[in-house]
Design goal:
With about 120 residues, this protein is mainly alpha-helical. It contains 7 helices and no strands.
């Protein structure tokens, strides 16, 4: 269960941060990075609300439900399509996002875990 739970968080991060998402109106790759960080922050804010005082151990044990992860996972096709449409180089986009990760903040342990995962593992 542990690998699956952590994998779910990692997948949600990867999908949410790989480019943009529904409702994103970026017209270039730099705007795309800005809007992506905003999207990731919304994910973290929602996780903060859903998780409350829950710990990573609670999530791994399956005692915490995070419906927001599924919502962001479902946006992956839109995210990838806009990145391709804009012609964004995946390596440059990743570097742009990494440069913006310090803009993120969280109040829950799970939210802080997402941010730390982005800092240590990249986008």
């Amino acid at each position: 269960m542990r690998k699956t739970a952590i994998g779910t968080i990692a997948l949600a991060i990867a999908l949410a941060s790989s480019a943009c998402g529904s409702g994103i109106s970026a017209s270039n790759c730099d705007e795309l990075a800005d809007e992506t960080i905003a999207l990731v922050q919304r994910l973290i804010d929602t996780v903060d609300e859903e998780a409350g005082d829950s710990t990573i151990a609670d999530f791994v044990a399956g005692s915490v439900e995070l419906p927001s992860l599924e919502e962001f996972r479902s946006q992956s096709d839109d995210i990838d399509a806009l990145a391709v449409e804009l012609g964004c180089d995946p390596n440059v986009t990743q570097q742009s996002l990494a440069a913006r990760v310090d803009e993120l903040h969280a109040t829950s342990e799970l939210g802080r875990f997402i941010i730390q995962s982005l800092r240590s593992g990249g986008f």
